[in-house]
Predict the structure of Putative mRNA 3-end processing factor.
Amino acid sequence: MARGASPLIPKPEGLYCPSGDFFIDPVRPVDRALITHGHADHARAGHGAVMATRQTLDIMAIRYGADFTATRQEAGGETRVGDATVSFHPAGHVLGSAQISVKAAGQRVTVSGDYARVPNASCAAWEPVPCDIFVTEATFGLPVFRHPDPQTEMAKLLESVRAFPERAHLIGAYSLGKAQRVIMLLREAGWDAPIFIHGALQKLCDYHLAEGIPLGDLRPATTDKMKKAEFAGQIIIAPPSAFEATWAQRFPDPVIAFASGWMSVRARARQRGVELPLVISDHVDWPDLTRTITELDPAETWVTHGREDAVIRWCELQGRAAIPLHLAGYEDEAE
């Protein structure tokens, strides 16, 4: 299929739909943007108009202020945008995350954004969307990446808490999605005690609670109300940037943990000074990525932000047409 016949065209700003005159997850301000989810590498302020799920619009307002865009439109069902028809479908990545389906030029394209297929109690589960072209992320697009069961990682954390009751356990987790998922995993693992959170997580955790995500008893991780020694045996969650300051020194002999798919790479854990790596990811690993392509069976697979070459090679070996998009501006597993 010739690239010019495609409903979407890669441009420096991001994926562009000529039929609808909009961009998907553009990396710079545009007149009209469709946004898959609220992470900062996909959802930026300054667009003329934004269409996204209600939760993503709310999250963007929390992060950027109510005036993050001139006009906003909540996604709902199939919607006509210019000469294209668009719809949003759960991606299983973070609260409000969606795959965007575009029907235009006689073809169906599914843009996955970021997605995951493992159970995640903090957001809606991924749904398959039939398509002619599937645009997949490749954050962990190498055969070496096979994420363990998250409950196994939680058991490792709780065992450490029991083994070192005199120490605080500090978990680095990104403020949108990862922090709330770790909290829910802890609740599912039987941790009913209060969980202490850094102030940077408060607004987004409050929003999850308002949306019916039962995060339980969350308390501010501040030494203004509690003495340092009282944090012994407690679990504290903070954005990774907090560990680069003196903030972590407020707690008794802290065990530094970090929740990320990248914690399977020991060099990354050592680089961050992580004592307890927790391999917990909100992205598909290699088995789930390749399984998704196989199950959707698109005529073409487009690969973006990540290990594009390995996924392209796998597609070639499977006799599948695939194209690397080489889009810039997306982080590996950050905000």
Remarks:
- The chain has two domains: 3-144+283-324, 150-278.
- DSSP finds seven helices and 19 strands in the chain.
- The CA atoms of residues 196 and 219 lie 5 Å apart.
- The chain has a mean pLDDT of 94.
